[in-house]
Amino acid sequence: MANYCAYQDRCHSEVEQKMREFVLIPEAKEEILLYLIRENYLNEERFTRSFIRGKFYQKQWGRNKIRQHLKMKGITEKLMNSCFDEIDEEDYLETAKKEWEKYHGKLKGLQDYQKNIKTTRYLMGRGFEWEVLQEIF
Question: The RecX second three-helical domain covers which part of the protein (predicted)?
Answer without folding.
Answer: 43-79
